[in-house]
Amino acid sequence: MKKLVSLLLTGALSFGLLAGxxxxxxxxANTPAGNSETPAVENTTSLEGTTIKVGASPAPHAEIxxxxxxxxxxxxxxxxxxxFNDYIQPNTAVENEELDANYFQHxxxxxxxxxxxxxxxxxxxxIHYEPFGLYAGKTAxxxxxxxGAQIAVPNDATNEGRALLLLQQEGLITLKEGAGLxxxxxxxxxxxxxxxxxxxxxxxxxxxxxDVDMAVINGNYAIDAGLKVSDALAVEASDxxxxxxxxxxxxxxxxxxxxxxxxxxxxxxxxxxVKTFMEETYEGAVVPMF
Length: 290
Hints:
Elements: H1 2-22, E1 51-56, H2 58-73, E2 78-83, H3 89-95, E3 101-103, H4 107-117, E4 121-129, E5 133-136, E6 150-154, H5 157-169, E7 174-175, E8 188-190, E9 196-200, E10 214-217, H6 219-224, E11 234-235, H7 241-245, E12 247-253, H8 260-269, H9 272-282, E13 287-288
Parallel strand pairs: 1-2, 1-3, 6-9, 6-10
Antiparallel strand pairs: 4-12, 4-13, 5-10, 5-11, 7-8
Helix pairs in contact: 2-8, 2-9
């Protein structure tokens, strides 16, 4: 009898230990990102059959997600990519939980959007940085820029300030002291060439490039239009303030940043396979931040 009881207790203890292992981490929060081409995900069977719906701008974000999609498919996870051509809908869709996440914006824009629209978006991961470039339109070089020339910039709050800082970097204008990242054309203190700053919706900048002398264009829209950062007349430094202020993030609604499926997506986006794709495909227009 004592031997039987002992065997029963031993079996029960073994079952309890196995149940405890199975109930552990089902995501990838503790998986180091970028250590292998296909990141390991603990207990992937719990995520098999999961679908993650992510909003993205066509280039480079949707293209990068296509690489992550292959990695997730090996784990039985389906990544559904929904493309947007504006900066509003993908954020409202995440806020309304029509999307699980979005990948199109930098951290400063996301924070500004939260403040202006009352959303509750947070960064699940910092993925890459896209240097702003000043591209030639009707005028081919900075030396040829005439008095009164037109330079187009994005009209949204965070990106306009960034564009003006690039113009200041090149000595074309001087901003008021302290204007910083939120500068507008009203903050221009010195404009020796009497440049006309034309404010346009960001997606229209490549389309209107031929109508102005030059334009400061967001990285994703430049890529989508076939513009190469190597052809830009001026580019932001990747190790400067802009790289931190404008790092592109995977955004989710607050409270979902540690969901196992989201963490699996983060691990895929921070894999060596995605990093290599960024570096080889975009030739400096997309800089991995991992």
